[in-house]
């Protein structure tokens, strides 16, 4: 019978038995499209007399009607239930639900879709998988994976056979990982402690000042005053991740007590907010500033020692005014503090910002100190402040740009960690190389046997490299577990530390191992072990089969 492809309009003849076998579906030889030939019969095909003899299908629009008696006689389907089961299977596999099988007036009616989409995809996949070149590539890939897996399994068995040498290699790698974890964990804690102390004793997370203040403000601080703008401060405190914004007014002058007069650097602060910003500033005597004592002063321990004063003593502060005159106020010492920097403690005193304005006879503040909810949000807060204050003549400075001491210490510690890592990597390289060299020397006969039974030199190389990899991996994991346990134990006990150079406050050290440090340490152990195994593995792969077998006797 004649049918026509609905996609490319090609007309051709289809044999009836082919339609019976394919349930009415055929593939166009021109465009390779799969379609229902029964719903695409041409006029010639519908009128052909052989249709009734060869295939008792009567085309009616999008339906094909089949006589049930013919199906039973020819044995294609024994019953309506069988027909429905076959149709259900075809629906499940082809992935389309348009096919319908039902019985009406003693006639089985089959509603066939035009072109099932998933049938096209599955047919294309079958054609692709039937490509001989593709089958060859897939076979080679399977063989390669099988070879790698078998070599890996053999390498693991070799480690279990050589228990003594494996233990030496594992302990070497594990010791290196433990040492590196503890060193990097202590330095990471030092970073965090120094960072939080620097932020919470003086600088805050971000500082806002008039443009040019941080470069030229020390020479003429009166020219860089910020306006007294409660609305702007409230707007900044409403920004995401901002905890508070406090004002500071810088001034300088002379402090007198009895016959002793000493120069000082002063900071006028808001007592309530400054208590949170300067949380890590240690009050060694007395108490901090409060609104209950408007004429109170908080002195650095070094400055108080130079003046010979303590809590409760009265000082006279003499300062200059913007007009070139002088002004003096009396203050009562509320307490003494120590910060991270001894030079700061020797020269600085703090008063309320209202008292500082009274002494200097000027309004406003020099900087707004912004404290974020957490240090990890500091850069985001800085960017948000720059966006909000853009074009208004403000400088927004991140705390790390103001902490020169912190930057130098961080650079020093980073160099120390690098030296430790290089030393530990060298120890692992030498130890693993020595262990594998001795292993190769003891297994010459085994290597010769493997090569005699068909192992190529490349597989011998892969075998010993994989042994080195496994030693590095298992040794690294063992060291990671031991290192984390020791870090937790040491942190619980604490490490008493003296004050660092330039500081007067000691600390109790801990070991803080981060996920990044743990992953980096494990990766370094594995890479070092693999590198250490390359040369011994190459030497093993270059052995001559006859010589290796002769030495095994």
Structural description of this entry:
The structure is a single chain. By secondary structure, the chain is of the alpha+beta class. Helix content is 54%, strand content 21%. It contains 21 helices and 20 strands. Strands 10-11-16-13-15-14 form a six-stranded mixed beta barrel, surrounded by four helices. Strands 5-6-8-7 form a four-stranded antiparallel β-sheet. A hairpin with a 2-residue loop joins strand 10 and strand 11. Helix 8 runs antiparallel to helix 17 and helix 8 runs antiparallel to helix 20. The radius of gyration is 43 Å and the shape is flat. The protein starts with a strand and ends with a helix. About 12% of the residues have low confidence.
SSE order and pairing:
Layout: E1 2-4, E2 11-13, H1 16-21, E3 25-27, E4 34-36, H2 43-47, H3 50-54, E5 57-60, E6 63-67, H4 68-74, H5 80-94, E7 100-104, E8 107-111, H6 117-129, H7 132-161, H8 163-203, E9 206-210, H9 213-216, H10 230-237, E10 242-257, E11 260-269, H11 271-277, E12 282-286, E13 296-300, H12 301-307, E14 314-320, E15 326-338, H13 342-347, E16 348-352, H14 353-360, E17 367-372, H15 378-388, E18 394-398, H16 399-402, H17 404-442, H18 444-452, H19 457-493, E19 495-497, E20 507-509, H20 515-541, H21 545-551
Parallel strand pairs: 11-16, 13-15
Antiparallel strand pairs: 1-2, 3-4, 5-6, 6-8, 7-8, 9-17, 9-18, 10-11, 10-14, 10-17, 12-15, 13-16, 14-15, 19-20
Helix pairs in contact: 7-19, 8-17, 8-19, 8-20, 17-20, 18-21, 19-20
């Amino acid at each position: 019978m004649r049918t026509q492809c609905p996609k490319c309009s090609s007309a051709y003849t289809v044999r009836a038995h082919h339609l019976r076998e394919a349930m009415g579906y055929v593939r166009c030889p021109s465009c390779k499209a799969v379609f229902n030939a029964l719903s695409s019969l041409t006029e010639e095909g519908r009128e052909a007399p052989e249709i009734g003899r060869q295939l008792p299908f009567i085309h009616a629009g999008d339906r094909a009607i089949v006589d049930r008696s013919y199906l039973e006689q020819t044995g294609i389907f024994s019953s309506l239930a069988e027909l429905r089961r076959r149709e259900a299977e075809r629906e499940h596999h082809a992935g389309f639900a348009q096919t319908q099988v039902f019985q009406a007036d003693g006639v089985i009616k089959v509603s066939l879709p035009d072109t099932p989409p998933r049938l096209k995809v599955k047919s294309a996949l079958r054609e692709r998988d039937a490509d001989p070149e593709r089958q060859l590539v897939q076979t080679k890939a399977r063989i390669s994976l099988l070879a790698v897996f078998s070599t890996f399994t053999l390498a693991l068995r070799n480690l279990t056979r050589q228990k003594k040498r494996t233990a030496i290699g594992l302990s070497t790698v594990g010791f290196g990982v433990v040492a590196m974890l503890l060193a990097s964990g202590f330095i990471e804690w030092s970073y965090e402690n120094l960072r939080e102390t620097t932020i919470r004793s003086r600088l805050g997370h971000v500082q806002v000042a008039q443009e040019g203040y941080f470069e030229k403000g020390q020479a003429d601080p009166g020219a860089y005053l910020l306006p007294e703008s409660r609305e702007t401060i409230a707007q900044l405190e409403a920004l995401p991740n901002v905890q508070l914004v406090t004002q500071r007014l810088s001034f300088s002058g002379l402090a007198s007590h009895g016959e002793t007069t000493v120069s000082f650097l002063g900071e006028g602060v808001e007592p309530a907010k400054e208590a949170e910003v300067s949380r890590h500033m240690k009050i060694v005597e007395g108490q901090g500033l409060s609104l209950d004592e408007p004429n109170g002063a908080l002195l650095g321990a070094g400055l108080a020692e130079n003046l010979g004063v303590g809590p409760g003593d009265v000082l006279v502060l003499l300062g200059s005014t913007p007009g070139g005159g002088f002004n003096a106020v009396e203050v009562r010492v509320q307490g003494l503090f120590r910060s991270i920097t001894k030079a700061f403690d020797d020269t600085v005193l703090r008063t309320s910002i209202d008292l500082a304005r009274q002494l200097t006879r000027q309004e406003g503040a020099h900087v707004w100190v912004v404290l974020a909810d957490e240090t990890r949000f500091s850069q985001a807060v800085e960017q948000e402040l720059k966006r909000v204050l853009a074009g208004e003549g403000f400088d927004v400075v991140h705390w790390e740009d103001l902490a020169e001491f912190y930057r130098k210490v961080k650079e020093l510690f980073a160099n120390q960690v690098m030296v430790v890592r290089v030393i530990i990597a060298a120890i692992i390289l030498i130890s693993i190389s020595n262990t594998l060299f001795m292993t190769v020397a003891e297994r010459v006969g085994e290597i010769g046997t493997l090569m005699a039974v068909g192992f190529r030199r490349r597989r011998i190389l892969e075998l010993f490299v994989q042994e080195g990899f496994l030693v590095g991996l298992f040794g690294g994991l063992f060291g990671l577990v031991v290192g984390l346990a020791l870090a937790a134990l040491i942190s619980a006990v604490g490490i008493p530390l003296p004050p660092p150079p330039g500081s007067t406050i000691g600390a109790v050290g801990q070991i803080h191992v981060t996920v990044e440090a743990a992953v980096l340490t494990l990766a370094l152990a594995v890479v070092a072990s693999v590198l250490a195994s390359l040369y011994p593995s190459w030497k093993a792969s270059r052995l001559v089969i006859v010589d290796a077998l002769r030495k095994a006797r």
